[in-house]
Amino acid sequence: MTEPRIQARGLVREFGAEAGVRGIDLDVEAGEIHALVGLNGAGKSTLMRLLLGMLRPDSGTVHLDGHGLDSAPWSRVGHLIENPLAYGELTGHANLVLAARLHGVPAPATATMVERVLSELNLHGYAAIRAGRMSLGNRQRLGLAAALQHDPDVIVLDEPTNALDPAGVILLREALLRRAASGAGVLVSSHHLDEVARVADRITVINAGHTIGALDPSGTDIEREFFALVHADDERTAA
Ligand SMILES: Nc1ncnc2c1ncn2[C@@H]1O[C@H](COP(=O)(O)OP(=O)(O)OP(=O)(O)O)[C@@H](O)[C@H]1O
After folding, report:
1. What residue stretches are annotated with the ABC transporter domain (predicted)?
2. Quick check: CB of 56 below 6 Å from ligand 1?
3. I need a labelling partner for 75 at 20 to 30 A (CA). Which of 11, 154, 179, 238 fits?
4. Distance 42 CA to ligand 1 centre (A)
């Protein structure tokens, strides 16, 4: 049995009484696309930051491929949390070369890798444009290219489609399915339930900092199921 790509146990990081992450267990297996859904402020980004060591938990543990965060295989991780990691004064191409180096990709392998991801996310037309001049959607594509080009084993993407056009959404979906099929574990948050249902193997619902259930990606009325879970949890909390 292989280790989960991501394993969190008892994660807590509170910001005052109501906000933050308040006790979450989560697994993302190799080959799996696992989606996190929840209302604004539910705790999805906070959870992802905790998983990536960007925030320290008050308590709980995270393992990536069986390693604690102090010894995690960071060069095998790709992530995009909120703002695309793009240096505005550098071109799209230069940003991707830099991201490859930061992920420890040897220089001779970089050119081919960058070419490949430019094609995969249809970014060739923007390779020579400075990131600061790109549209929001193309900056997001660039950030996704930087996160995915080294074919990481652990992929964590926070709302990766929020600025993408429909063509970008399809390209990203295909890119994630390809990587999961090669054994990556993918964790993705989204507000687009239909889109998530198309791509995810597992959908976890988060509300007020804890997991409250799962949605069946092949369900016929996933939106209704989502609101039923959230309302039931809100009522339980209010009681
Ligand atoms: N650094 C912080 N200091 C104080 N409160 C914070 C901090 N970061 C997040 N929070 C609060 O924690 C809660 C969860 O926020 P988080 O950004 O994780 O939610 P989210 O599910 O990603 O929401 P959205 O869908 O709007 O992006 C919110 O109430 C937020 O205001």
Report:
1. 6-233
2. no
3. 11
4. 7
CA distance 25 to 53: 16
The response to whether residue 41 sits with its C-beta less than 6 Å from ligand 1 reads yes
For residue 175, give the amino acid letter.
Answer: A
- Taking the C-alpha atoms of residue 107 and residue 19, their distance in angstroms, rounded to an integer, is 43
**Spatial CB neighbours of 212, under 8 Å, sequence gap ≥ 6:** 205, 206, 229, 230, 232, 233
* 40 pocket-lining for ligand 1 (C-beta < 6 Å): yes
Can you tell me the ipTM of this complex? 0.96
Cβ–ligand 1 distance for 15 under 6 Å, the answer yes
Cα(150)–Cα(155) distance, rounded to whole angstroms?
Answer: 11
CA of 182 relative to ligand 1 center, distance in Å: 32
